[in-house]
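Module 6 notes. Inverse folding takes a fixed backbone as the condition and produces residue identities as the prediction. Think of it as a translation problem where the source language is geometry and the target language is the twenty amino acids. Below is one complete input and output pair. Work through it position by position during the lab.
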């Protein structure tokens, strides 16, 4: 990939690693190496000959040596042998600078693909019941294959389709958001020190006001400012207090005054450096000052990276409720640097994961099962896992936003899953007891309970969601919050249409529908359950 990370294909024989690897390398213009081919070249003989003459132990040792050698490569597609994953040492080497993609297929497909390769598959040679042998090997290797960052079932896919599927989930790419008559990029996997270079390349110039908060600016403010100054931008900064309660009209007024004092004009830019509050507030000011100045987003929290930085929703809160004043205002570009998450406190990682889980329920495509397998790695801030989660969540949101930028068709409202109750919980608890992501986690449970009680969502689906949220160390109940305050907060919700409360409810993991005929008595009952 562009950042030098290797793409490593692992998986059982007959899943297409070699053919896919060569085509993937060609498409991405990367180097290519096949561990089996490299071993054959070094030994001067084919793999079956090595097995026959020197045995599997000798082959595995040579395989280790080769993998250790190629793990130092940068920007390669690497196809590995089916048994390479059996060595923890191999996995460690490949993961050091590699994004692991496991290709899999069902037993019948593997049998069909390997049936005419007599003598070419040493581990199948001599076995009359090859299907049983494949099943035995797959059972042993399954836990090792599960260490991949992502798995793609190739059973019914062509080589081009497999390559497309891999490219779709790769981190570190430039994603495009196409809304109305304009397109803007989201750079996933870049460095915040590239901010100035990107801004200059996209034609921004003159004055840039960097808005950040007291938590973020001391860590990253200077790096961003320096990158902009290197490209001759006139940089100023404004540091605001952190916290949801400062996302207000009074704070916006202070920011307007600051912009006036700087003599900013309509060619100037506002850059949001921080989490969701900084992004929403800065975007609102950018959209309304002088009827619109350029806006750039450099999100530094996982929550902002996967949610608020994408889609163009900007705004402020009123005492009566959250995000009641705002507009849709798309940025010139978004730069997402997963490296900044190293300094993110564990609680802030967890709240970001809540929004990732929401995306997995909206657009599953194996995303939910991936989270089930990799949630512990995400909590530990494993860089490969986080980059995949960010990339996948953003793709989910882009797909929805492009269909309904301004929430006029009802499509974009599915992104509100968990937010109707979640926002009410935040309001009822004074924006202090729960973070936004924690409130959304509880909201997803409550709204899934509503869906289950009206026969829309299965009990098993509800339990799977709760189980994943618990494993993510997120709250599933709003204990201690006044139920009546939550119910009253629902009455001041921007999603109300013609007096009816609209809920985005799960019909299945992977499908959300909008429902506006929920009895108030049922809503009250669910609220009582989630606060008890």
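Target side of the pair, the amino acids:
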């Amino acid at each position: 990939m562009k950042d030098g990370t290797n793409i490593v294909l692992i998986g059982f024989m007959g899943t297409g690693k070699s053919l896919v690897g060569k085509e993937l390398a060609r498409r991405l213009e990367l180097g290519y190496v096949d561990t089996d081919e490299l071993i054959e070249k070094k030994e001067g003989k084919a793999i079956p000959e090595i097995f026959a003459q020197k045995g599997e132990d000798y082959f595995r040792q040579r395989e280790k040596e080769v993998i250790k050698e190629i793990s130092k490569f940068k920007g390669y597609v690497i196809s590995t042998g089916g048994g390479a994953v059996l060595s923890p040492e191999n996995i460690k080497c490949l993961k050091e600078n590699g994004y692991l993609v496991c290709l899999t297929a069902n037993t019948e497909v593997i049998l069909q693909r390997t049936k005419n390769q007599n003598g070419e598959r040493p581990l199948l040679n001599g076995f009359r019941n090859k299907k049983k042998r494949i099943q035995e090997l797959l059972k042993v290797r399954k836990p090792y294959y599960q260490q991949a960052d992502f798995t793609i079932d190739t059973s019914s896919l062509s080589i081009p389709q497999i390559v497309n599927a891999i490219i779709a989930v790769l981190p570190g790419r430039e994603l495009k958001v196409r809304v109305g008559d304009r397109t803007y990029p989201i750079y996933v996997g870049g460095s915040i020190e590239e901010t100035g270079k990107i801004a200059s390349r996209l034609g921004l110039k003159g004055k840039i006001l960097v808005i950040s908060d007291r938590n973020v600016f001391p860590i990253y403010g200077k790096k961003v400012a320096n990158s902009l100054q290197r490209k001759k931008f006139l940089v100023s900064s404004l540091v605001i207090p952190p916290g949801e309660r400062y996302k207000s009209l009074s704070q916006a007024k202070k920011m307007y005054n600051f912009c006036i004092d700087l003599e900013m004009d309509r060619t100037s830019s506002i850059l949001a450096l921080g989490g969701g509050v900084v992004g929403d507030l800065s975007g609102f000011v950018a959209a309304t000052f002088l009827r619109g100045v350029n806006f750039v987003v450099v999100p530094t929290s996982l929550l902002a990276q996967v949610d608020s930085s994408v889609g163009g929703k900007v705004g402020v809160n009123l005492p009566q409720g959250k995000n009641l004043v705002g507009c849709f205002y798309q940025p010139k570009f978004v730069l997402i640097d997963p490296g900044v998450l190293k300094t993110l406190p564990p609680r802030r990682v967890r709240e970001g994961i809540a929004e990732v889980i929401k995306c997995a329920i909206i657009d599953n495509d194996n995303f939910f099962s991936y989270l089930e397998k990799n949630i512990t790695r995400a909590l530990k801030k494993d860089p490969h896992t986080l980059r995949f989660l960010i990339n996948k969540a953003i793709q989910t949101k882009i797909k929805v936003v492009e269909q309904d930028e301004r929430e006029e068709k009802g499509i974009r409202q599915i992104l509100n899953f968990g937010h109707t109750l979640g926002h009410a919980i935040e309001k009822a608890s004074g924006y202090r007891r729960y973070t936004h992501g924690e409130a959304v986690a509880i909201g997803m449970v409550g709204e899934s309970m509503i869906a289950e009680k009206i026969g829309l969502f299965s009990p098993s689906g509800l339990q799977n969601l709760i189980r994943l949220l618990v494993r993510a160390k997120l709250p599933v109940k709003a204990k201690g919050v006044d139920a009546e305050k939550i119910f009253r907060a629902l009455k001041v919700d921007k999603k109300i249409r013609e007096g009816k409360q609209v809920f985005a409810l799960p019909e299945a993991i992977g499908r959300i529908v909008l429902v506006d005929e929920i009895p108030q008595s049922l809503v009250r009952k669910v609220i009582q359950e989630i606060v008890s």
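Reference fact for the lab report: The chain has a mean pLDDT of 92.
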